[in-house]
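In practice, a research group might receive sequence data for several interacting partners and want a quick structural hypothesis before committing to experiments. The following worked case mirrors that situation: the sequences arrive first, and a predicted assembly follows.
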Amino acid sequence: MSLFITLEGPDGSGKTRQAESLLEHLRSLDLDVVLTYEPGGTPIGDQIRNVLFNLDNTAMDPRTEFLLFSASRAQHVAEKIKPLLERGTIVLSDRYFDSSLAYQGYGHQLNLQTLWEVTSFATQGLIPDRTYLLDIPVEEGIQRRKQGGNWNRLDAFDLELHKRVRSGYLQLAEDDKSRWEVIDASRPFDPVQESLRHSIVEFIKSRGLLVEG
Ligand code: TYD
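A structural hypothesis for the assembly, expressed as tokens:
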């Protein structure tokens, strides 16, 4: 029995810090958990990440971008996620294929069916057991990223794209309520972390991986 949980959200939703704090909490419950991330998560994936985020690569076509994210993901699944799940580890990933559907699909308006076909191939059909959407209004998210000084090539795209990404995420969550849960990430850090902890612990208990107590 293993569990694959992903965190998704628009830029500036605070996912990465939330994921780190969540990891600490789950480990304090004696759970075997590994936190990983995309794009990257493996040595090959991290090299692809450098190509994606290189500020010199502003001319990158969205198709190229999608294929690079997918290539990084294929390696991530094969080299890291699947083997961990097979040995019973709970895998928590900061972004996974829903990021591609939201950004390259809804954001850049590439054909969703095509993206889905390539994604199924890249991931060997591995779908998360549970996905949390850290939802935040676009302007707030961008503001947070600017304040944090975390500004890369992908952030430079226009507001409309980010708006499509956010509504794309909400659509994905709406389409599969059994997998997704939407968390209001416009709140301060602590209440967001509380919501995440509560929901994940309940989920893990429902799968019999954590005894009541
Ligand atoms: P990153 O620096 O990892 O920050 P964060 O996850 O905290 O936002 O940036 C990831 C960026 O890459 C983010 O703008 C979303 C984008 N992205 C895609 O467009 N498609 C994808 O498939 C993935 C995994 C990420």
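Before designing any experiment, note the following. Helices lie at 15-28, 43-53, 62-86, 97-107, 112-123, 138-147, 159-175, 189-206. Strands lie at 3-8, 33-37, 90-94, 130-135, 180-184.
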